Amino acid sequence: xxxxxxxAAVRHEEPRGDNELLARIAAxxxxxxxxxxxxxxxxxxxxxxxxxxxxxxxxxxVQEVFVTVWKQAARFDPNRGRASTWLYRITANRxxxxxxxxxxxxxxxxxxxxxxxxxxxxxxxxxxAARQELAIVxxxxxxxxxxxxxxxxxxxxxxxxxxxxxxxxxxxxGSAEQLLVRGRRALRDHLAMAAxxxxxxx
Length: 202
Fold this sequence. Notes:
This protein is mostly helical.
């Protein structure tokens, strides 16, 4: 077989190999999952690390990707695209989620919590404490007045500036800015009030 035709044949076999692995994963084969990780894990980690700018976050993202693959392999439809494209789409979505989460933590002044969660060397106690703190932030957000919560999320998650937030919320820029100030202050107060109960539990 000429070299050109052989190369084309190999390229056509690669997607079918991935499809077969996904079918085996859907049937519960951990060996197939390990083979898929060996085949695509490095590329996905490189993509995530370059997108996020943090190798530790990229490792976490790719672990989440393959957990998703393990749970949802049966949903993959080879008639709608390549398996590798599906994997990268999942990875891209997880990267976006990770960046939004970090943006929220940064906006709330809790960057150190995110670092603790992402750090591979973080011990179980530190990880548990960080998760508790995130739960408190979520609880605090749920307790805010609706417009304060909306303004904060538009800023932190949607990455909108004050003018855009004011437009979305049909208010003045000054009102939008005050919503952000009051909402952030309320969240910090909520976190401070929750601190004694965290210490008693620890």
